Amino acid sequence: MSEQRPFLLGILGSGKGSNAAAIADACAAGIIPARVALVLSDVQDAGILAQARARGLPARFIPPGKFRTKLDEAAEAAFLDALRQAEVDLVVLAGFMRILKGEFLRAFAHRVVNIHPALLPAFPGLEAWKQALDYGAKMTGVTVHFVDQGIDTGPIITQETVPILSGDTPESLHARIQEVERKIYPAVIAALACGEIRVQGRQTIFTKPLLPH
Ligand code: GRF
User: Fold this and answer.
1) pLDDT given at position 170
2) Active-site residue (options: 116, 145, 174, 213)
3) Strands (DSSP E) along 13-89, which ranges?
4) What pLDDT is recorded for position 4?
5) Disulfide-capable partner of 59 in 52, 118, 164, 184 (CB 3.0 to 4.6 Å)?
6) Residue 107: is it exposed, middle or buried by C-beta count within 10 angstroms (0-12/13-18/19+)?
7) How would you classify the pairing of strands 203-206 and 34-41?
8) Other CB atoms within 10 A of residue 159 CB
């Protein structure tokens, strides 16, 4: 009997890679029924590449080209090619600091997810934990969402709140948010790998409750 092909993840990130590490470890532990096929970064010395290599996972830097907030055409094609060659089923953005556009999103329609460190639609964009703190919010959180052409605008999959405490600094708040991220993202990816989340317009429908996380 032939073994069933595993569900394959491609993880993209620009930073230290704590989410990618949590996801890779959850795959290795069998909590996510999937395999990390490829980790890609637009930053040559990003921690996410080191995290991947330390776990024996294929990891590549792809130069992003001349723009600051997006990939240029050739770079986007190179990312797409690498993910297609690795036969990735789901693209997981984990601190990837560039907007993905047209062809990329069409190639992976409803198969690109992102984690954002705030309760969208509040505080989209950069340093969302700092935005929430500066605003004087008492509560912020984490959002996992599908990626569309906008900045942090795609259909929301799940959200979890994180309190903002008096005396919080941007660092202490971000650390509290990241603790939640490292639990919620693997749970969502496990559900996606099991085909338990459908998307209809802006609505996402869970056929089973998320794993306790
Ligand atoms: C996370 O806080 C995530 O919400 C944001 O970028 C950060 C990535 O952190 N999109 P890490 O590289 O996974 O540690």
Assistant:
1) 98
2) 116
3) 34-41, 59-61
4) 85
5) 52
6) middle
7) unpaired
8) 15
Alpha carbon of 50 to ligand 1 centroid (Å): 15
Prediction pTM value: 0.96
Alpha carbon of 4 to ligand 1 centroid (Å): 32
Residue whose C-alpha is closest to residue 115's, from 211, 196, 12, 27: 12
Residues whose CB is less than 8 angstroms from the CB of residue 186 and which lie 6 or more positions away in sequence, other chains included: 22, 23, 26, 31, 32, 213
Q: How many C-beta neighbours within 10 Å does residue 42 have?
A: 19
Residues contacting 16, CB < 8 A, separation 6+ = 46, 47, 48, 51, 95
Q: Whose CA is nearest to atom 14 of ligand 1?
A: 18
Residue 105 has pLDDT above 60, yes or no: yes
Decide if pLDDT at 2 tops 60.
Answer: no
Q: Locate the DSSP E strands across 42-154.
A: 59-61, 90-93, 112-116, 139-146
Q: How far is the CA of 19 from the centre of ligand 1 (A)?
A: 6
**Ligand 1 neighbour 18 (Cβ under 6 A):** yes
Q: Is 213 a catalytic residue?
A: no
Tens of pLDDT, residue by residue over 116-166, are 999 999 999 999 999 999 999 999 999 999 999 999 999 999 999 999 999
Percentage with pLDDT > 90 across the chain: 94
CA dihedral 192, 97, 105, 30 (to 10 degrees): -20
- The minimum-distance atom of ligand 1 relative to the CA of 114 is 10
CA distance 170 to 37: 33
